[in-house]
TrEMBL record:
<dbReference type="InterPro" id="IPR001296">
    <property type="entry name" value="Glyco_trans_1"/>
</dbReference>
<protein>
    <submittedName>
        <fullName>Glycosyltransferase family 4 protein</fullName>
    </submittedName>
</protein>
<feature type="domain" description="Glycosyl transferase family 1">
    <location>
        <begin position="201"/>
        <end position="349"/>
    </location>
</feature>
<dbReference type="GO" id="GO:1901135">
    <property type="term" value="P:carbohydrate derivative metabolic process"/>
</dbReference>
<dbReference type="GO" id="GO:0016757">
    <property type="term" value="F:glycosyltransferase activity"/>
</dbReference>
<dbReference type="Pfam" id="PF00534">
    <property type="entry name" value="Glycos_transf_1"/>
</dbReference>
Length: 394
């Protein structure tokens, strides 16, 4: 474990925060808790929309939720108010020596040079290509050049994939500032269950003993590729008549994409498709299932892949260039569909089910613990904090 003797006080800035869930939010909380367990003091600052400002505790982590007077996620007014309140908060709390941003919208970048002038270390975590990476900000028509100037003021950038790291370098960020650190999984929640635990969880969710349970996790939206998944599952269900597809993730029944999926289910004459919404116990669905399917079109680093494999699930994924290979290669449990054709995807998933072995589970579990456990990932962050404060990792 890295030395955390420096009196670090880290303000994690994550404008989306529960009950507004996103992958980057979940990862930021997971990292915050891991850092707290290593004697690094961590608090969060988050956007509370039209709700009143409040100081809160969420899952053991302190968070200040600030009112921004709008419930429109992409409102520039809301973004500006958030930045003004964040600036005041940081100035009034001089004990924070590290400001660590997660999944920014844009205006936060203009705070980077101000915080550096105030003597704070500023870190930015890059989470999604073509969204919050430096190339995307640089290419914004009105403020691109100013965004880039602000981005160059960071102490360091944490890229969760090689693709995001390369995009930072292409945008002109100094190589010495860009550090690749993957997302991590909580090894206390995501692990291979013994047969009794698996059976108990299947009973809890009402799955029959002879059912073959396929699971997919993520917000029900076009980016996640559930339309592709349903096409593939139509083929899988012809092979396995007892197959269920459980989709874990938030959705709105009035959302056009969700309604499109419902029509698609009817058109393909599919049965046993379960939308269970957002769940706090995703790890239990993994442990109850037999196979994980993932058809997303765009990701920064899909942590659900390592979580599923950590629970011993054969995992079939649609290829995302520069992303999926980095996670899947060498695991034994994961297979990538490079054609992104639902028919090929279905055949690959069926083949995986037939070739499944416990040896692959053991090999993958050991590999994932070394590469992606949140304990090891937290140590990497502390090591980089230490470098910025010229502290040796002893």
């Amino acid at each position: 474990m890295y030395n955390a003797s420096k009196n670090y006080k880290v303000l994690m800035v994550a404008w989306r925060f529960p009950p507004d869930f996103a992958g980057a939010t979940i990862q930021s909380i997971r990292l915050g808790k891991a850092l707290l367990s290593r004697r690094v003091r961590v608090e969060f600052f988050a956007d509370n929309g039209v709700a009143e400002s409040v100081y809160d505790i969420y899952d053991g982590v302190k968070v200040t939720r600030t009112k921004t007077y709008s419930n429109k996620t992409l409102s520039k007014f809301r973004e500006l108010v958030f930045c003004i309140k964040l600036l005041y908060f940081v100035i009034s709390r001089p004990e924070f020596n590290i400001i660590h941003f997660h999944a920014i919208r844009g205006f936060e970048i203009f705070l980077f040079p101000i915080f550096r002038l105030l003597g704070r270390k500023v870190f930015l975590k890059l989470t999604l290509a073509d969204s919050d990476d430096p190339v995307s900000f640089k290419n914004r028509r009105l403020l691109g050049a100013f965004y880039l100037l602000g981005l160059k003021c960071v102490t360091g950038m944490f890229a969760i994939s090689e693709q995001l790291k390369n995009r930072a370098l292409v945008a002109g960020i100094a190589k010495t500032k860009v550090i690749k650190i993957s997302n991590g999984f909580d090894e206390e929640l995501f692990f291979v269950p013994d047969p009794d635990i698996k059976l108990s969880l299947r009973n809890k969710f009402g799955f029959k003993d002879n059912s073959r349970i396929f699971v997919s996790v993520g917000t029900v939206e076009h980016r996640k590729g559930y339309d592709l998944l349903l096409e593939a599952f139509a083929i899988i269900q012809k092979k396995y008549h007892n197959a269920f597809l459980v989709i874990v993730g938030p959705y709105l029944e009035t959302d056009p994409y969700y309604m499109k999926l419902r029509n698609q289910i009817d058109g393909l004459k599919l049965n046993n498709i379960l939308f269970v919404g957002r769940q706090n116990d995703v790890h239990e669905y993994f442990k109850a299932a037999d196979h994980f399917l993932f058809c997303s079109r765009q990701e920064g680093f899909p942590s659900v892949l390592i979580e599923a494999m950590a629970c011993g699930l054969p995992t079939t994924v649609m290829n995302i260039a520069g992303i999926t290979e980095e996670i899947i290669d060498g695991t034994g449990l994961g297979e990538i569909c490079y054609s992104r054709d639902p028919a090929d995807f279905a055949k690959l998933a069926i083949q995986q089910s037939l070739e499944f072995s416990e040896d692959k589970v053991l090999h993958t579990s050991e590999l994932l613990l070394r590469k992606f456990s949140i304990s090891n990932i937290a140590d990497e962050y502390i090591g980089n904090y230490n470098k910025c404060f010229n502290i040796s990792d002893t």
